[in-house]
Amino acid sequence: MPLKIRYCILIALLVCLTVTHAQSDINCLTIDDTGIIKKAFRSFEEDLFSYYRFGTDSTKTYRTFLAEVASLSINLMKLPSENSIRLVREFKQIADNKNSLWIKLSEYENQEAQKKASPSTSKDNNQELLIFNYRGGFIQCLKNNSDSDDFKEIIYALEEDGNISTSLVSQKIYYIPDKHLCTKEIKNFIAFDIYFSILMVIEKAFK
After folding, report:
1. Of 76, 91, 72, which is closest to residue 168 (Cα–Cα)?
2. How big is the chain by its Cα radius of gyration, in Å?
3. Cβ 47 vs Cβ 81: under 8 Å
């Protein structure tokens, strides 16, 4: 085989490998141009590791959190930091477009989903009901880039019916194998669909 042809083939292979690697390492945080999702995830992990004190053991920390949410034994008044509560209030203020993590129920695209309000909702005299946006770009990015079929099945179920309790979602995530549990996609899902969704409901209990 002529040297020039071999060289062209090698270049083509390198390009393919580079593109494949880039596609498999997509950072879903870049979808958010406000920076709040990145800040919130950092605050979530700081809260979690500070509260459970298992050092750098992510698997044990995340599984303990999920187990306590699933069993309704978690102390929600001691876990969140002031920073996390402040970020929750920011999320409520920007819930005004279809790409938000939580959106106004009236703006949710699927009319059927409007009849099945997520347990991650909040309402007061001055604020419209909010629902977690399972069809939004961020969550869809997490699903599409995850290697866990179990995780994808959970998202598919939530897309169809948002009225699945947070404790049950936590239980399902808890049983995902270790090799997938601590991937960035699933950790981000835990941070927002479980932790911050709970805080969206209880933030008014904090000053």
Report:
1. 72
2. 20
3. yes
Rounded to the nearest 10 degrees, how much is the dihedral formed by the CA atoms of 110, 115, 118, 121?
100
10-29: pLDDT as tens digits: 444 443 333 333 334 567 88
- Asked if residue 21 belongs to a domain, the reply is no
Tell me, yes or no, whether 26 lies in a domain: no
Query: Number of C-alpha atoms within 13 angstroms, CB side, residue 187?
Result: 22
Q: What is the pTM of this model?
A: 0.79
Per the domain annotation, does 11 fall within a domain? no
Helix (H, G, I), strand (E, B) or coil at 74: coil
How confident is the model over 118-161, as pLDDT tens digits?
444 444 434 567 778 888 889 999 999 999 999 999 999 998 87
Contact between 153 and 164 under an 8 Å Cβ cutoff? The reply is no
Asked whether residue 14 is domain-assigned, the answer is no
Distance (Å, whole) CA 86 – CA 122:
16
Residue carrying structure tokens 């979602």: 169
Torsion of CA 49, 101, 105, 95, to 10 degrees: 100
